[in-house]
Design brief:
By secondary structure, the chain is α+β, with helices and mostly antiparallel strands. Helix content is 57%, strand content 16%. The chain contains ten helices and ten strands. It has a five-stranded antiparallel sheet with strand order 2-1-5-4-3. β9 (425-430) and β10 (436-443) form a beta hairpin.
Length: 445
């Protein structure tokens, strides 16, 4: 009997696969650039806040120096007993000295306090002579402690005239009057100075900072592209190795099936026919022995023919995976097992991945029928734009997936290794007495 011609399969990547591989590289580079942009933003925001804080501190330091000069050389020496007594002429003299400082609006308000909280002088005459509660830190300041500088809204009882000015720079420094007695000098500065300083620092530092980060990002881009291409080449090599492995497996299965069909099965079938002819010529005990031998031969021939079908299912490439799955379910239905199929009308999947899913289904259905004692089984296939998932659930006796398989029962383990090489997944959920669920998923390409 002539041997069937073996069909050769072309495993070279089509043009679409090359485009997909290029798309993978572009996608990886795009993700790298997007991550770099997010990192750039994540770094820039705290750096900008740091620059703003540094600008504010720098402006507060400058305002403190100005306040010291104003307190030590302009106002402090003019705080005499006459000023303390409220003499108009003495107060007017101070007004004339501080007028140039107030003229450009950079200094909004001036107050001079004694240690008891009494306002000895202010550019607002109505505040002079009034007494307010002074903060607790005023004692250490009057004793020679550190100055106080802040940028905030002014809402204290002594700030009626500053409440509508928004944020102001508030500076407290220690001074002494003409007699050497300690005073607390307070000055308010317009916050625009702070904001101008912050804007100036940001404008001067941000371009250099962003340029440095962008140069770093661009310097990392070529290695990222090379890495993405290397990964893509490795993936392509892995796919080619898998295709060669599948082809070799199919060829070996086909060879074994062909040898069984053309040689062993034919020889056994011929022997069965010879025994049948001999049966007609014999009688008695010898004939009974020949009949039993012929029955055993016929049963073995049927078993071998079923094995050849399992080794290399005829017509899978012509029928497609969906019809192949339906035919796999037929033997279970014939044995009285309820089979529920949820299959799409059409499945867009190449032959290699179809063969892998077919083997998963064949192994699972064979186990459910011969080992699990299942009474019902559900098989479904779901697909989306990227992946195809095969799910098989039975109500059989179940098993422990973590335990070592019995001798010879390594089909699922082999299939799992094959699927993992393709980048797919195989999940097996089972428990003794609670059935088994097998889910295999592969990418479309």
């Amino acid at each position: 009997m002539p041997r069937p011609a073996a069909r050769a399969w072309d495993f070279r990547h089509p043009d679409g696969a090359t485009a997909a591989e290029k798309s993978e590289v572009r996608s990886a580079v795009s993700r790298f650039l997007m991550i770099g942009l997010l990192v750039l933003i994540s770094v820039s925001v705290p750096v900008a806040l740091w620059i703003r804080a540094q600008a504010e501190n720098h402006t507060l330091d400058d305002a403190t120096v100005i306040t010291h000069h104003l307190a030590d050389y302009t106002v402090g020496p003019l705080i005499t007993d006459e000023v303390i007594a409220g003499d108009p002429a003495a107060l007017k003299l101070i007004d004339s000295r501080v007028a140039p400082w107030l003229a450009d609006k950079s200094i909004v308000r001036i107050k001079v306090w004694n240690p008891q909280g009494r306002v000895l002088y202010s550019d607002v005459p109505s505040l002079i002579g009034r007494t307010f509660d002074i903060p607790r830190w005023s004692g250490p300041l009057l004793a020679g402690g550190a100055e106080r500088a802040s940028l905030e809204l002014q809402d204290g009882l002594d700030n009626d005239h500053e409440a509508d000015s928004g944020e102001l720079v508030e500076i407290y420094v220690r001074a002494v009057d003409a007699a050497g007695r300690p005073l607390m000098f307070e000055a308010y500065f317009d916050d625009q100075t702070v904001h101008d300083e912050q804007a100036s620092l940001l404008l001067s530092m941000t371009p250099a900072f962003l340029l440095a980060l962008m140069v770093l990002q661009l310097a990392q881009l070529p290695p990222a592209i090379r890495l993405a291409r290397r990964i893509q080449v490795d993936q392509a090599s892995r796919r080619q190795l898998l295709q060669h492995a599948i082809r070799a497996s199919d060829l070996e299965r086909r060879r074994i099936a062909r040898d069984l069909h053309d040689e062993v099965i034919q020889d056994l079938a011929g022997l069965s026919y010879a025994l049948e002819a001999e049966d007609k010529l014999e009688s008695g005990a010898r004939r009974s022995l020949i009949i039993r031998a012929r029955v055993i031969l016929q049963r073995n021939v049927s078993t071998l023919r079923a094995m050849t079908g399992e080794l290399y299912p005829p017509g899978l490439e012509q029928l497609g995976l969906i019809e192949g799955l339906r035919r796999l379910a037929d033997p279970l239905t014939e044995r009285g097992i309820e089979v529920r199929l949820h299959l799409p009308d059409r499945l867009d999947l190449d032959r290699d991945r179809s063969a892998i899913l077919y083997r998963v289904a064949r192994e699972a259905l064979t186990n459910a029928m011969t080992h699990a004692g299942a009474q019902s089984l559900e098989l479904s296939v779901e697909q989306d734009a990227d992946r195809i998932e095969l799910s098989i659930r039975d109500d059989g006796c179940g098993f422990d997936p973590e335990a070592d398989p019995p001798d010879g029962h390594v089909g699922l383990r082999i299939i799992r290794d094959t699927i993992l090489v393709t980048g797919g997944t195989l999940e097996i959920a089972s428990r003794v007495g609670h059935g088994t669920r097998i889910v295999a998923a592969v990418d479309r390409a």
